[in-house]
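thought: fold this chain, then report.
action: predict
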Amino acid sequence: MKIYKKLLGIIFLLLSFNSLAQEKIYKIATDIDFPPFQYRNSRNELIGIDIELLEAIAKNQNFKYEILELGFQGAINALNNGEVDAIFSAMTITDKRKEKYDFSNPYVKNGIALAVKEDSDITSYEDLKGKTVTIRTGTVGHDFVSKISDKYNFYLVHLDDDLNLVEDVVNNMSDACFEDSIYIRYNISKGEKIKLVIEEKPHLECGVMVLKGKNQELLEKINKGLKELEKNGTYRKIMDKYLVGYNESL
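observation:
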């Protein structure tokens, strides 16, 4: 009888170890510095809307994950190459992207904004004629601005980093920049000497992105988690923490 119990115990331990070994740890890619969605604070802690939502969803839906800070284009390349399972970085949901990727339910609404220095006299697209305007490569804003640059005759400079967009405007290295309206509003609230002049498409929706047909179980967990976070008030608490006055619901 004792031998039988010992054998059962050994089998149970082996099954437990095997289960732990097979437990999925999702690799989630993010941008490197894209406040208020993901960025590092003065203590070098990774924080932001995406980071806190992911943590809360994973806890609610009981799954494990690893965050890889790869930058915007680096994250897309890694997803395309199968090196990560998903991108959780305020990815705008578009028809073009849907041809290659699947998305979670949207968790934030955004827009494309034109920002200039605080004392600039630019108030319209017509005022951009002959000016230097920056845009981040690969974004939805990039597609939109590329289409209007010829119409309004401004010089378009492509950058890979959001922070450089704002810094270039503040330091007179460019006359204006196009970026997500939430990011522009966040920078203004933090004291950057810029102002929002025009906001286009104010209700672009953002979600978690995976390769088409892949990691559907992860999308299901994220969708269920978002619904639960809205019910228990966690979603509103996180959004209010980073975006004062953001009143959109899921």
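thought: worth noting. The first strand starts at residue 25 and ends at 30.
final: tokens above.
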